[in-house]
Amino acid sequence: MPMCCMPGVAFVPALLVCWSSAAFIISYVIAVLAGHVEPFVPYISDTGTKPPESGVFGFMINISALLASITMYIRYLLIEKQNESSHFVRSSCNMFTLCVGLMGCTGMGIVATFQELAVPSVHDIGALVAFGSGVVYITLQSIISYKSCPRWNTYFVCHIRMAISVISCIAFIPMIVFASKISMTKIDWTPGEKDYTYHFMSAICEWTVAFGFIFFFLTFIRDFQ
């Protein structure tokens, strides 16, 4: 029996959601308690730059990337199986969506491995790939979900997925724009200093996109049952 049809496989996206949330929150708490970042809206990467939180962040984000890859592959198999009888999407489109998602997971691995202050250019490229590919992936999955209605998905779930995709897309653009206006690489931001407003707005958008991904994968749990 294909893995996508096995009962209990819903634990994979559930574990992804819980683990990724914990990765962000634990790293944030350690970084704040250690005095390495200001508690009010740091970049996600800022919370995983200095020891000891850097080790926790790198380990947990790499595991999140692996879990996301597994989730995306199971989703690919699930759609392929459903498509055998319904023919609601081209197999090539399904494969392209998977490849985009795996590219985003690779970007996550780069972010976790090459820290912000150590290798900023590589880190930034990884972040751009991770967030950009992630936004494209959830948008494509939202479209596929609509095509599979009403047999394989309810319109309510499709609306939720598309809403998350739209919000993530809207947040992604100012995240990049404001980040590009920041003239220095640092993690100890304080209100009132140069470029703080750009940092603040970009960080809010970054957290919005990141948790948009988490909430999107949360909607996969019922499908994987």
UniProtKB/TrEMBL annotation:
<keyword id="KW-1133">Transmembrane helix</keyword>
<keyword id="KW-0472">Membrane</keyword>
<dbReference type="GO" id="GO:0005764">
    <property type="term" value="C:lysosome"/>
</dbReference>
<keyword id="KW-0812">Transmembrane</keyword>
<dbReference type="InterPro" id="IPR019402">
    <property type="entry name" value="CWH43_N"/>
</dbReference>
<feature type="domain" description="CWH43-like N-terminal">
    <location>
        <begin position="9"/>
        <end position="225"/>
    </location>
</feature>
<feature type="transmembrane region" description="Helical">
    <location>
        <begin position="95"/>
        <end position="113"/>
    </location>
</feature>
<feature type="transmembrane region" description="Helical">
    <location>
        <begin position="125"/>
        <end position="144"/>
    </location>
</feature>
<dbReference type="Pfam" id="PF10277">
    <property type="entry name" value="Frag1"/>
</dbReference>
<feature type="transmembrane region" description="Helical">
    <location>
        <begin position="55"/>
        <end position="74"/>
    </location>
</feature>
<dbReference type="GO" id="GO:0012505">
    <property type="term" value="C:endomembrane system"/>
</dbReference>
<protein>
    <submittedName>
        <fullName>DRAM1 protein</fullName>
    </submittedName>
</protein>
<comment type="similarity">
    <text>Belongs to the DRAM/TMEM150 family.</text>
</comment>
<dbReference type="GO" id="GO:0010506">
    <property type="term" value="P:regulation of autophagy"/>
</dbReference>
<feature type="transmembrane region" description="Helical">
    <location>
        <begin position="156"/>
        <end position="178"/>
    </location>
</feature>
<dbReference type="InterPro" id="IPR050911">
    <property type="entry name" value="DRAM/TMEM150_Autophagy_Mod"/>
</dbReference>
<feature type="transmembrane region" description="Helical">
    <location>
        <begin position="198"/>
        <end position="221"/>
    </location>
</feature>
